[in-house]
Design goal:
The structure holds 3 protein chains of 3 kinds. Chain A is mainly alpha-helical. Helix content of chain A is 73%, strand content 3%. Classes of the chains: A mainly alpha, B mainly alpha, C alpha/beta. The interface between A and C is large, with 59 and 56 residues.
Chain lengths: 357, 296, 429
Amino acid sequence: MIYRECGIYRTSYAKDMALFPIPLDRWATYAIAAAAFLAVPLLASDYWIGGLIVPFLCFALAALGLNFLTGYAGQLSLGHAAFMGVGAYAALILYARYSAPLLLSLLGAGLVAAGVGVLFGTPSLRIKGFYLAVSTLAAQFIIEWVITHVKWIGGGVYATIDTPPLRIMNWWLIDTPVEKYYLTLAVVVALTVFGRNLVRSRVGRAWMAIRDRDVAAEIMGISLFRYKLLAFAVSSFYAGVAGGLISFTYYAAANVEEFNLFLSFRLLGMIIIGGMGSILGSYLGAGFIVLLPIFISQFLGGVGKVVGRLVTTDLLANVELMVFGGLIIFFLIVEPLGLARLWRTLKDYLRLWPFPY
Amino acid sequence: MSGDLLFGVELAVSGLLVGVMYSLVALGFVLIFKSSGIFNFAQGAMTLFAALALVGFLPRLGMGVSILAVLAVMVALAFAVERVVLRPLVARPPLALFMATIGLGFFLEGLAQAIWGTQPKGLDIGIPDTPYVVGGLLLSRLDLAGAAAAGVLVLGLIVFFQKTTLGLGLRAVSDDHEAALSVGIPLGRAWAVTWAIAGVVAVVAGVLWGSRLGVQFSLSLVALKALPVLIIGGIESIPGAILAGLIVGAAERLAGGFIDPLVGGGVKDFSPYLLAMIFLIFRPYGLFGREIIERV
Amino acid sequence: MAKRLGLVTLALLLVGGALALIPSAAAAQDKTVWIPMLCYRTGPYAPGGSGFCGGKEDYFALVNAKGGVEGVKIRFQECETAYDTARGIECYERNKEGALVIYPHSTGIMYALLERATRDKIPLSHIGYGRADAADGTTFPYAFPFISTYWSLASAKVRFIAQREGGEDKLKGKKIALLYIDIPYGRETIPIMERLARRFGFEFRGFPVPPPGLEQGAQWTDIARRFRADWVINRNWGVSCTVPLREAARLGFTREKILGVWWCGSEEDVVPAGEAAKGYLSAEFSGSGRDFPVIQEIIEKVHGAGKGNIEKERIGTAYYNRGVVEAAITVEALRGAMKKFGYPVKGEHMQWAMENLNITEARLKELGLLGLVPSLKTSREDHEGGGAAKFKQWDGTKWVGVSEWIAPYKEIVWEAVKESAAKYRAEKK
């Protein structure tokens, strides 16, 4: 009863093409957007904004990029963190060394990462599946190596570029957590809306066709060459912007060690847990992988306080790992298609509730 | 022999010996992928788990009994994994299973360290570090022993897969799950047995790598060394894993010795991946991987 | 059924998470100061993290057991970072309210906190790690790399090698190999080693080890058989510290000529190498073992009362002692801050006190820290306060000190510090 499609008439092409044809979806989205732009800065503490939400948004953006590649176009990648790294360094080189405007630096970061992504995406024309995944590992290692060893990029032995004060148009200083949050949110929302439209465009349909059956897609006249590389480009673009953004608003520096192989695995984990081929899933998955360990740790910390000295902190830290691993398995068993699918199930349930049929 | 040549030969020989150790880890991946199509990312964590368990048992039980005990633990673990993780996920997308093994990896790392602690421990298997000197070459006894152990293990596996009924059954499962089921091979048990064998491989890898590095968390990172071996050798081939391990070991050391000084270092660790990418262009399914003919 | 179970669990998790985030009501004692502990007890580097944190917590517990600092107790609580920068920042943001000092416990976290801590006016104490140019207090007012930075250490190592070789003039023509893990931390001392090589005329070459460095056969074959180094500096981290000892033994390279950075000089680094570690030398910024009054006091008053923060057998290990040293310096600064500003103490008071530390030998003796900590005198310009390092040797079961405090080549180090700090200022403008 609460969530239903019936009674909604699409009487014009514009209505038919709307992003959210169902009013409830639409209102819910508006409500979330309003909450994100208005309520969160008012209600949440600096800790929530600066310590949890900003990194969550950045990682969600990167996961979204990977979801285009893996979830929509069906190409597995284990080098996604390296593309974030490319973006981080590109953004800071543009912004700090060449004094490019802030948003243009982010755009540039995305474009440079997209270029590098296309380069490392070429093996996808010949191989797929786990072989492709493992060969994208080469991208991870080579990019890390280049960043550390080419002096022009990292600027010496530290291979780290510090973030200068963030200014938009030379007058608006972005300094407090709330301001950084707005910057992050604006970029993430813009790219999410763009992505949402992209996947229902010709490009998105081509990707899904390739994912479902590449031979059939080619017979239908979809250029695998063009769309596979486009998937790498778009996904790396998102990763690059996310890398630049997180270096600007969170890490306060571009440091190659942050964009390591384990982040690549975690990004892949985000989209598998969240839901492949789902935009909402990228967010849910990022929440799961980024925020859940923190919650578990705080929860166990609370338990530890109650139980007292019987449990050592060492034990707690390892139990946290076990709980996290156990939850991954648990959610996969409950819903192998990801948390986004669970959300769909809930919507289906609400369609009838509270009436039995 | 001239200096550089001797240096090269020395690198190559030691590289080959270390390559066998890489093969050993890769073998665990191959076994599970072959029989169930799962890319088991928990193999590294299983290696760590086995090694930590062994060191945990040692003071009380002595070497021989400890190894038996660890083998028993790994077999029990395999059956538990099959029951709790794999069975509910039968016929699910391979990526979900892959992710589940990552979760399993976290769980095992946490469990092993919660029980046996995070402090690194030495593991002395009674082989001294002093090298043999053969014609100016230094050969490590530990590496030789490792190579020998790996060789025995591989021979054993080959005999198992070729000669025993259970082994034949597992090969049938790897060929076609449904056909195997229809001729009466219990799929669940077959998987459990495969995981148990992978567990045994993890014990051997854990002992050999543990005696090199000490038993500590980093043992689980050894799995990363297996990845290029898998691409070059093919994810489904036991001989492929062995040969590719040798190639990777030697290539890595030669790159480290001759290319690193020229470019300021660090090539060594990704040279196997570069090599793997070249291989992939010419043989997309590895040296011995199952060729799937497809034109796209 | 399974689906519904999933939904319920999801809901429970969200509620549980939200509950867990409600800050626990602070223990309402009248006079306390708050020191959050960013620790790593999981992941590849956990063996070090637990000792480093445990040592600090034990020292704080000792101070509390003796009545606190002029009646003010130290409240401390751990936050697990797993050596991950993002989680470290989260820990910082969660715990920074009223914090007097932050121990980042990781170079990446230190970078990320540098700006935040400066804004929030909380000093960072990063003893023996973090960027070396942070010693320049005019550029980095809130960063405190006490005792010795990597650059000071590198030069102290060269001085130590010169001593062993029988004088600075004997360094000429010697070959020193720097085996380093190929991350910014590992590469940090290359410029200073190059400067020192020019000055003393020894031959210097770097041998990078790609992380995590499980396998270093190629580098070692090169060092021992082609380059034929006289001395090897082992500048690794975690498991890659242990591997060189085995590789050297395998190639018959004497361990008495391998000199570790302090992060390669703990029991955790040598025990897994077994026999192969015997004779290995390592640098250190603190004394080793349990033979110090303060350690005995901790055993008696903290662990004796069942309030220890670490397994008893690990007391006196390298990481533990380092923790005690860092905590002791913090407490001395806290004392200074309270003397000047009184209670309540704020971050900027701590910063002032840390800049004006003067811990003399006599004071160390009073505190039972003599031999464990070198005497220390900081200023507004110099946040390092000495730069001396000690050296020790592994005899198969324990570390044995083999030198007194060895001073760095200060003018070379500070020239580099000033240059690097100027570059940082230019980047941050």
